[in-house]
Amino acid sequence: MLELARIRKEKETIIERLKLRNFDGKELIENILVLDGNWRESKQELEKIAAESNQLAKSIGSLFKEGKQDEAKKAKARAGELKELEKNAKEAMNAYAEKLQAALYEVPNVPNPSVPSGNSDEDNEVLSNSGTIPTKLDFWQPHWELAKKYDIIDFEVGVKVTGAGFPFYKGQGARLQRALINFFLDQARDNGYTEIIPPFVVNEASGIGTGQLPDKEGQMYHATIDDLYLIPTAEIPLTNMYRNELVKSTDLPIKLTGYTPCFRREAGSYGSDVRGLNRLHQFDKVELVRIEHPDNSYAVLDEMVKYVQDILTKLELPYRTLRLCGGDLGFTSALTFDLEVYSAAQDKWLEVSSVSNFETFQANRLKLRFKDENNNKQLVHTLNGSALALPRILAALLENNQTEEGIKIPAALVPYTGFDIIKN
Predict the structure, then answer these.
(1) Contacting residues for 298 by C-beta, under 8 A, at least 6 apart
(2) Side-chain half-sphere of 415: how many Cα atoms within 13 Å?
(3) What is the DSSP string of 254-300?
(4) Is the preceding omega at residue 388 within 30 degrees of 0, hence cis?
(5) CA nearest to 227, candidates 243, 250, 198, 203
(6) Which is deepest, 112, 225, 274, 385, by most CB within 10 Å?
(7) 345, 342, 323, 343: which is closest to 334 by C-alpha?
């Protein structure tokens, strides 16, 4: 959520920069400033009424003691009037505050100046390519056919037991999935991240804190009786650990990692892009979360991108790094880099990680601050990145490493799987 002080100070710049998202924020920003003015006026009126009430309360007793009965009665009558005025002023102030909060929730984060213009993922900027794209051989098959051939993932029984997008991993497929999770967690631990096993459901306040609510409410599974939400990413519980916290500057940086299953309704997703593991309703992911001093966050963003690149290199997967354009930028992000691996069997790039800097956008919702060297309270910057989301990593590993003997396992994973090839 954008800070009101920033909106007041940088109104025109914010409106202009939001156009990078193809978001016309002029009317909304103007409305926010009007509501802010109304709220401040009602607050001043309330304070004025409260001051007069306090003064009258002190004087009434004195007037009675002095025998000034008429004046005392008038003062009491006025006090009664002020009580009603105070009630009305408080209701007006709270109403303006609710409208102001709701309006602020509608404004996406302001894109970083480096974000390119564009309307969709087709306009994202390719920054680099790494690794050798394998040549597709005649016998190569997409991963959903390999899953059936080697009996390692069962999509059909998933449909029977739950529905489409909820596969069963079996035998060597389950072991490979578990190996990837452990490999990713060990990589994070070796790079100074504290491992967390969080809850897989969160309350509404947590969803609001990191920006999934109300923006993506329709994409989250909602347990309505308990009013809890299944998490679409570990970012939500990990970051919300510090909601309403004041941390010391010496506590920064805070580096967290966590494995969780992730649940996404993916409403409106159809076609070839959702086949097999390409898009699921439940999938596994290891997430990185950083809570940083504002001066360091963009250097840290580059560090996190490099970290994901190094993991993909260890997995021997060809990948590319993209900077997202304004039209493809997430609601809460100021700048996002996507990493995609190439699947030769499908002849396409598959997104496996998004690494984002939210600047103060989440911290302002979370009321997450730190004390600087002058003992002043400041909002932190929050960042997160997938390191990594498993389904498309697994798809690319299966498709790119198939041989006539079976599917070879990258050397970095063999200590985790206990085998170096998947075969019948």
Answers:
(1) 335, 357
(2) 5
(3) EEEEEEEEEE---TT--SGGGSTTSS-SEEEEEEEEEEE-TTTHHHH
(4) yes
(5) 203
(6) 385
(7) 323
What are 33's two structure tokens? 């400033």
Count CB neighbours of 70 within 10 A: 8
Using one digit for the tens of pLDDT, what is the confidence trace for 232-276? 999 999 999 999 999 999 999 999 999 999 999 986 555 557 799
The pair phi, psi for residue 304, each rounded to 5°, is -70, -40
Strand order in the sheet with 377-379: 246-248, 369-371, 377-379
Q: What number of H helices and E strands is found in the chain?
A: 12, 18
Report CA 184 to chain centroid distance, whole Å: 20
**Which residues are CB-contacts of 48 (< 8 A; sequence separation ≥ 6)?**
none
Whether residue 413 contacts residue 176, with contact meaning beta carbons closer than 8 Å, is answered with yes
To 10 degrees, the CA torsion angle through 129, 131, 135, 137? Answer: -130
Tell me: the pLDDT tens digits for 358-383?
999 999 999 999 998 888 999 999 99
Return the pLDDT at 327.
97
Cα atoms in the Cβ-side hemisphere of radius 13 Å centred on 285: 26
Average pLDDT, integer, range 89-114: 96
The structure's pTM equals 0.93
Residues β-bridged to residue 201 = 230
10 Å CB burial of residue 221 (0-12, 13-18, 19+) is middle
| Summary mean pLDDT of the chain | 94
Instruction: Match 């007006």 to its residue by tokens.
Output: 92
Per DSSP bridges, beta strands 254-263 and 194-195 are parallel
Percent of the chain's residues with pLDDT above 70: 97
Instruction: Report residue 80 as tokens.
Output: 């009664």
Give the DSSP per-residue string, 77-91.
HHHHHHHHHHHHHHH
Give the model confidence (pLDDT) of 275-329 as tens digits.
999 999 999 999 999 999 999 999 999 999 999 999 999 999 999 999 999 999 9
- Residue 51, amino acid: A
Farthest-apart Cα atoms in the chain, separation: 108
